């Protein structure tokens, strides 16, 4: 008869242990809103995502709330993607550019994962469009100048489409029309509401 194997309670096998709760909040953990709001007010001064000498530092409660997610790993992946985007061809990360990207995303205040992904895409497209615009402005060879100008135009059109998609998603596709002033001339009649023209003669 086979010998049964039992595993001690503290044996977790090959699974890496989670980081302590004080440094890595659990999924769905809520921090008092007043403390988070106070922390959010300091974002512009110190940044929620930092990259220094190959080490990525994330202030998880602030960053997670700012990008609209309760999932720790997802928030880390988004931050890592922005770090890669802020890296030069020599893989050197420009912290000022990283701060610009993260604060653009946070400034849009995404409320869920779809808004978060759109915000990240918009930040990246904006950065690329500015880079292409700079190349176009500085290029003296006409052919290259035209290539950069076309790429800039395409990126800016993409950004405009993304902004419209973000707006439609956030508002649920609803369009609100407000009538502030109605002027009725003598002998005229004002109708506020839906007007349907009859098809009969």
Write up this protein.
This protein has a two-stranded antiparallel sheet with strand order 1-2. 19% of the residues are buried. Helix 5 crosses helix 6 (113-138) and helix 6 (113-138) runs antiparallel to helix 7. It folds into two domains: 21-107, no CATH class; 111-172. It has seven helices and two strands; from the N terminus they run H-H-E-E-H-H-H-H-H. Helix content is 51%, strand content 4%. With 201 residues, the protein is mainly α.
**Unreliable spans:** 2-7, 9-32
Q: Roughly what is the average pLDDT, rounded to an integer?
A: 78
What's the story with the biggest beta sheet? 2 strands, antiparallel
Strand content: under 5%
Counting H and I runs of at least 4 residues, what is the number of helices? 7
Shape: flat
Q: Write down the Rg.
A: 26 Å
- Helix and strand pattern: HHEEHHHHH
Spatial order of the strands in the main sheet?
1-2
Our measurement of the CA-to-CA distance between the termini, rounded to an integer number of angstroms, reads 95 Å
Number of strands: 2
How many distinct domains? Answer: 2
Specify the structural class: mainly alpha
Residue share in helix = 40-55%
Biased composition (Basic and acidic residues): 1-10
Region (Disordered): 1-31
């Amino acid at each position: 008869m086979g010998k049964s194997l039992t595993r001690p309670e503290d044996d977790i096998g090959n699974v890496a242990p989670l980081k302590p709760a004080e440094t890595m909040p659990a999924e769905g953990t809520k921090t008092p809103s007043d403390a988070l709001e106070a922390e959010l007010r300091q974002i512009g001064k110190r940044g929620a995502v930092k990259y220094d000498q190959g080490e990525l530092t994330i202030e998880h409660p602030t960053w997670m709330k700012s990008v609209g997610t309760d999932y720790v790993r997802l928030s880390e992946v988004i931050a890592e993607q922005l770090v890669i985007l802020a890296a030069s061809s020599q893989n050197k990360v420009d912290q000022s550019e990283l701060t610009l990207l993260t604060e653009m995303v946070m400034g849009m205040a995404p409320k869920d994962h779809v808004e978060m992904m759109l915000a990240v895409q918009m930040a990246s497209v904006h950065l690329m469009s500015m880079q292409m615009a700079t190349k176009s402005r500085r290029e003296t060879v006409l052919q290259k100048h035209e290539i950069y100008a076309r790429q800039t135009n395409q990126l800016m059109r993409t950004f405009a489409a993304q902004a419209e998609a973000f707006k439609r998603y956030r508002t649920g596709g609803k369009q609100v029309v407000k009538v502030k002033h109605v002027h009725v001339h003598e002998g005229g009649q004002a109708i506020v509401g839906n007007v349907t023209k009859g098809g009969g003669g």
